[in-house]
């Protein structure tokens, strides 16, 4: 979460956001209430006094509404310290409350008791609505309600008129009750905002931990894949190793058993490899093994074909769903490809180039057979090829 999002989700700025959004409804309500008061008292109060009061109320309300809309659109309040932004807001609501309070002072001289009651009723409705709107800030709430009622309380209590004193007393009681209820509601709102902020922090923390876990899991998967690849491949030649061969043999045997496909196996041996090593050295021997592995892999190109290093200078090929003739053809093609590569071997008894011998076996698996039976048969055929003079396929 970026810095602006963190600021926006802090309890203080959430409180400001609620105050601004509530003002989008409460300020138009203030304009409506003041317009009703204007219509009701227009004939009772001198028009100039009424017009000045209404113009002042309308101007302040419109200005506040513009500032609120601008603040919400541009989020300018996030650029200020929360206390400063709150004080600016409280100033605007306090001016509105003071203008309402001034109406008692201005209009009381020109109205009778019935209109005084009406004015107190309108002020009470405005105070209650404003109290709910300003609930996110107890200070704004108390100042607004106090500025509406205190002028009426003072004027009525000190008027000396029994009716006015009674009204003043009722205003005090109503003010106390309204402040108590408003503060209770404000506490609920602020507790809710604090819980929201805590939940947001907890959610952010969980998201960060989840991201770290996903990253760790991804790294573990990659490491596992790498280690699996390392354990399933021959480090010298890069092709599959004996473990990979065993795993694939069992899998392909079972697959061919289910579908009753033929499974073929080619066991390949480099002729007179020990003599090559003795004559050219082990480094050249390793290079030769890599070269032969590449040539064999280039011949067995089907998706299910597997070429593996079986051990030492021996290689083995698994051909799923391949007939014996197909396997013999592949083995013969591989033998010629190695011969055509003209890899020097001056210490061979049968050629001055590297040659291979290959044994081919094909079985259509049954439940009574062992999967390694095909390897034994291919090994027997390889032994036969060697006894017959090498550099051939049997």
UniProtKB/TrEMBL annotation:
Sections of the chain in a coiled coil: 192-230
Keyword vocabulary terms for this entry: Coiled coil, Membrane, Nucleotidyltransferase, Transferase, Transmembrane, Transmembrane helix
Annotated Pfam families: GGDEF
Catalysed transformations (reactions): 2 GTP = 3',3'-c-di-GMP + 2 diphosphate
PROSITE patterns, per database record: GGDEF (PS50887)
Xref: SUPFAM superfamilies: Nucleotide cyclase
EC number: 2.7.7.65
UniProt KW Cytoplasm keyword: no
Domain GGDEF: 261-394
GO molecular function: diguanylate cyclase activity
InterPro entries (alphabetical): Diguanylate_Cyclase, GGDEF_dom, Nucleotide_cyclase, Rev_trsase/Diguanyl_cyclase
Domain of life, per lineage: Bacteria
The UniProt record lists the keyword Transcription regulation: no
Membrane-spanning ranges: 16-41, 47-65, 86-109, 115-135, 142-159, 165-185
Protein name (Swiss-Prot/TrEMBL): diguanylate cyclase
């Amino acid at each position: 979460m970026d810095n602006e999002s963190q600021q926006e989700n802090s309890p203080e700025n959430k409180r400001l956001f609620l105050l601004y959004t509530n003002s989008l409804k409460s300020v138009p309500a203030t304009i409506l209430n003041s317009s009703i008061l204007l219509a009701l008292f227009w004939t009772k109060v001198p028009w100039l006094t009424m017009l000045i009061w209404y113009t002042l109320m309308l101007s302040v309300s419109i200005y506040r509404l513009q500032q609120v809309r601008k603040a919400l659109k541009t989020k300018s309040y996030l650029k200020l310290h929360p206390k400063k932004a709150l004080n600016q807001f409280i100033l605007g609501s306090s001016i509105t409350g003071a203008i309402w309070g001034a109406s008692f002072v201005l209009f009381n001289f020109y109205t009778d008791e019935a209109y005084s009651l009406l004015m107190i009723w309108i002020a009470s409705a405005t105070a209650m609505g404003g109290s709910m709107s300003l609930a996110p800030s107890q200070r704004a709430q108390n100042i607004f309600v106090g500025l509406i009622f205190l002028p009426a309380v003072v004027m009525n209590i000190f008027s000396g008129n029994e009716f006015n004193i009674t009204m003043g007393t009722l205003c005090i009681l109503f003010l106390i009750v309204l402040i108590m209820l408003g503060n209770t509601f404000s506490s609920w709102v602020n507790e809710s905002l604090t819980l929201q902020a805590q939940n947001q922090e907890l959610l952010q923390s969980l998201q960060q931990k989840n991201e770290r876990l996903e990253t760790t899991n991804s790294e573990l998967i990659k490491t596992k894949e790498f280690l699996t690849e390392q354990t399933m491949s021959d480090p010298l030649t890069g092709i599959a190793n004996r473990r990979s061969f065993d795993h694939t043999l069992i899998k392909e045997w079972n697959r061919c058993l289910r579908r009753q496909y033929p499974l073929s196996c080619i066991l390949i041996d480099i002729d007179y490899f020990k003599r090559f090593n003795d004559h050219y050295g082990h480094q050249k021997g390793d290079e030769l093994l890599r070269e032969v592995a590449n040539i064999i892999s280039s011949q067995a190109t089907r998706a299910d074909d597997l070429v593996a290093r079986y051990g030492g200078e021996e290689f083995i090929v698994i051909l799923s769903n391949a007939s014996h003739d197909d396997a013999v053809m592949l083995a013969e093609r591989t033998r010629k490809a190695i011969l055509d590569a003209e890899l020097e071997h001056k210490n061979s008894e049968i050629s001055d180039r590297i040659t291979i011998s290959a044994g081919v076996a094909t079985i259509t698996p049954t439940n009574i057979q062992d999967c390694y039976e095909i390897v034994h048969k291919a090994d027997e055929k390889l032994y036969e090829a060697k006894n017959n003079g090498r550099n051939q396929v049997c």
